[in-house]
Amino acid sequence: MNQAGSMPRRIRSTREQFDRVFQGTSAEPSRSTTCAEYVNDNMGFAVSKLYIKQYFDENARNQSVEMIGNIRSAMKKMLQDAPWMDDDSRSAAADAIYENIGYPTYLASDNNTILENMYAEYNFGMSYLHNVLIMQQVKAREDFRTLREPVDHRAWGSLAPTVVNAFYEPSTNAICNV
């Protein structure tokens, strides 16, 4: 069932019938929508680079950075009134929050080395299902490689800028506005 969407139409239609009964969905999304979402979910940083170069409004990013700066200033002011914190803790608490705004800076540069390294193992063929399985293998190897590495709390993470959202990520103490 997990890979039914990657299979030929006759198998996808069985999954569609299942979803119709158990989830109340009425139709399968178009194949082009499914493929575009898959590429964006799995290669979103490459897609983002193309979008940023052509369409991204740098002014919007600057406004977001300014807004986050205002939030940080307001937090510092609130912390000044916290009687249970010493001065070192107040300073550390406000400065420990970092922000991921818009996109990682390497996406706006003409240097593609980071992206090339990021997608070096992506070697696709003509079969969509085969490509999906290769992608899963690559993702599993990436997960295993990072398993014992120290966590870089300032890293952008796996959420590509093509996913528009704004949130606080408590596990990394980050304000994200993508």
From TrEMBL:
Sequence ranges assigned to domain Peptidase M13 N-terminal in this UniProt record: 4-104
InterPro entries in UniProt: MetalloPept_cat_dom_sf, Peptidase_M13, Peptidase_M13_dom_2, Peptidase_M13_N
Gene3D superfamilies: Collagenase (Catalytic Domain), Neutral endopeptidase , domain2
GO MF assignments: metalloendopeptidase activity
Protein name: Peptidase M13 N-terminal domain-containing protein
GO cellular component: plasma membrane
GO terms, biological process: protein processing
UniProt-listed Pfam families: Peptidase_M13_N
Domain of life of the source: Eukaryota
Species in which this protein is naturally found: Didymodactylos carnosus
